[in-house]
Predict the 3D structure of the following.
Amino acid sequence: MKFIISVDCEGPACVVGNAGKALSASRDYNFACREATLEANAAARALFDSGAREVWIWDSHGQGLNLCIDQLDKRCKLILGKGFTCRFPGLDNSFSGVVMIGYHAMEGTKNAILAHTYSSESYKNIRVNGQTVGEIALDGAVAGEFDVPVIFVSSDDKGCREALTFMPWLETVVTKQGMGRNCALSKHPHMVQEEIYSGVLKAVNCIHQTKPLKFKSPVQLEIDFKAVSQAVKALVYRRRGWRLVGPRTITKKIESMREWIC
Ligand SMILES: [Zn+2]
């Protein structure tokens, strides 16, 4: 068995960021990187203990240079940096499952810690076939195109609830309860790491109950930007085929979620 762990940095225990700032510019960014690393390690250990022969860790937050590499489980391979042409660089159907660590709820979710969808500055809503989605479902559907299921998600309570609405089969661990965009009632990091270890063990045990997330093809993508100027600019920079259908909204029909780039 071979697995990929995608690690974001907003969702780990005790991470709340600062009001009005992205996590990378917040006072707890360094802590977030450290805690994301330890939570990824807990997941990796559970995967190896379940018989995985290969575990890849994808540092998927921001510029892809967040994790404390010298503290990561040395048995893992790492995917880092920015500029990949699709989500889940390197993923193919030889993988048995995806584990999401440190994820967060979609833009606009009430009382969700640091909720956003890829870019807090640009995207107001992203819809797939008319349904508003966040990073959990979009990343899950990209993996689904390779027939790889998401088997586990850790996030705040709102992120876990969102994950289960799209993928009711998966195991979740709630790291903290969102009480506002930048405040939480959090579990202690050590407790969360233990829960992630047990949760991922359970997820691999129940892997036969999971399935790849697939949206009905062709997929109609719609993006509402926060500003008119961003929508116009996006039309210029994005690949061909996008149309402006509202002052701040662009749309495109795609055959496969592999074409999705954020
Ligand atoms: Zn992030």
